[in-house]
Amino acid sequence: MDRVFRIQKHLWICLILGFLNAADALFTHQLLQKGGRELNPLMRGLYEYDPTIFLLVKFFFTYLIIAIGFIPLKTRIQVLLSIALVVYIIVIVWHFIINIWLVK
């Protein structure tokens, strides 16, 4: 009997990516409130227009990333997800470094 709902092997990567994307949104918002600067020009413009819309867009992308975890993907796309995971881990570490530096 074939299951209607099948867990994809890349679901964990997408769940972690979604969590890191949401954390990035919150850390970025916090740093921008302290006078930091958004490096992504598109997101910077969105934040300058309205911080709430910035957060809604970031959380919408979080939802999309998690939803992708339930879709069958080719191996090449799964590799790209793994690369994105490494990049987001670096971004979150960078946020921690900046926050520690700003506290001093």
Automatic annotation (TrEMBL):
The keyword Iron belongs to this UniProt entry's keyword annotation: no
Domain of life of the source: Bacteria
Residues in DUF5658 domain copies: 16-100
Residues spanning the membrane: 12-32, 52-73, 80-102
Record's keyword annotation contains Nucleotidyltransferase: no
UniProt keyword list: Membrane, Transmembrane, Transmembrane helix
Coiled coil start-end: none
Name by which UniProt lists this protein: DUF5658 domain-containing protein
Organism listed in the record: Fictibacillus norfolkensis
